[in-house]
Design goal:
The chain is an alpha/beta fold. The protein is built from 13 helices and ten strands. An eight-stranded parallel beta sheet has the order 1-2-3-4-7-8-9-10. Helix 4 packs parallel to helix 5. The longest helix is centred in the first third of the chain and has 21 residues. It is globular and about 60 Å long. The two termini are 14 Å apart. The structure holds zinc ion (ZN).
Length: 318
């Protein structure tokens, strides 16, 4: 049985070569790149050995989220993105069948983001991009992003939503690792809701969007989100169907750390919408991903196969 992982982080060697030798990488120093975790420093060959030990056949690599840098000037962010993306492009070439890629994009400039996505899709054989739940505070339903969504749809790119650093929970408390454990899920739920209520999913019905961390609280909260659409005029300004009608317009990774939550996700969105994500090599990763999926007593063998590889095989042509 194969295993294809869509939620994987990479700290590029081109960054490490600079910062570990006392220089900066387009202004970024060694505090970026999470190098306190030794796995982030590993070469592609070391990474492949670890993938083999876990039973992972293909990693769909994204540059680490600290490299988004949407708050820098566009030329700096573009240079960071291009270097990171080029390294992943080289890994795809050097190790055929083992790596694929999701690009880093300068999202604060929609035209530059489209250009880089086009380059990565058409020249580097990428499958899409990874972006934050907001761009300097703007959610992705903002009209400024309509040309981006149009290009994403036309290019057939997969977009993986993933937070970076602070989340909405950070404003309330930074204690107990809650900005991550609760905040990631909250940010993802906001992304689902803003794209749906903002009419983005209606305007671009062929978008392929994956909500990481199981889509956050989307499935558990969808009843209340629907109720808001029923009773509040402002909630139905852009959409004529209830938000729950859009659940199957998205894909979701399996990072729930809970068998019953994964079962609920599958029952809510359909097994064809759930894919393998691991968060490798972050501390909050699934340690032994295929083993964890295979050990789930509440899933059929067909469902396990769909999550581990069949859905992404079909979706990304891997
Ligand atoms: Zn992650």
């Amino acid at each position: 049985m194969r295993a294809i992982d869509i939620h994987v982080h990479l700290t590029p060697q081109c960054f490490q070569r600079e910062v570990l030798n006392g220089r900066t990488f387009h202004g970024l120093d060694a505090t970026y790149g999470e190098l306190d975790n030794p796995r982030h420093a590993w070469t592609p060959e070391q990474r492949l050995l670890d993938m083999d030990s876990m039973g992972i056949d293909v990693q769909v690599l994204s540059p680490g989220v600290s490299f988004y840098k949407y708050d820098a000037d566009v030329s700096t962010t573009s240079a960071i993105a291009q270097d990171c993306n080029n390294e992943i492009g080289q890994m795809i070439k050097d190790f055929p069948g083992r790596f694929s890629g999701l690009a880093n994009l300068p999202m604060q400039d929609v035209s530059a983001a489209i250009d880089e996505l086009d380059r990565c899709m058409n020249k580097l054989n990428f499958k899409g991009a990874q972006i934050n739940d907001h761009v300097n505070g703007k959610t992705l339903d903002d009209p400024v992003f309509l040309p981006f969504w149009k290009a994403v749809e036309q290019l057939g790119a997969m977009i993986l939503f993933h937070q970076s650093g602070s989340t909405v929970v950070s404003a309330r408390t930074k204690k107990y690792h809650l900005p991550n454990t609760i905040g990631n899920l909250t940010d993802r739920t906001i992304t689902f809701a803003t794209l749906v209520f903002g009419g983005v999913m209606d305007k671009f019905p062929n978008l392929r969007i994956c909500l990481s961390h199981g889509g956050g609280y989307t499935c558990f909260g969808i009843g209340r989100i629907d109720r808001g659409w029923e009773v509040k005029r402002e909630a139905c300004a852009n959409i004529s169907r209830p938000p729950s009608a859009y659940l199957r317009a998205f894909y979701y990774d399996c990072i729930t750390f809970s068998g019953p939550a994964l079962r609920m996700l599958i029952d809510t969105v359909g097994i064809d919408r759930v894919v393998l994500g691991t968060d490798y090599p972050a501390p909050m990763r699934i340690d032994w991903p295929p083993s964890w999926i295979l050990a789930q007593k509440g899933l059929t063998l067909e469902e396990k196969e769909a999550i581990l590889y069949k859905n992404l095989e079909k979706l990304l042509g891997l």
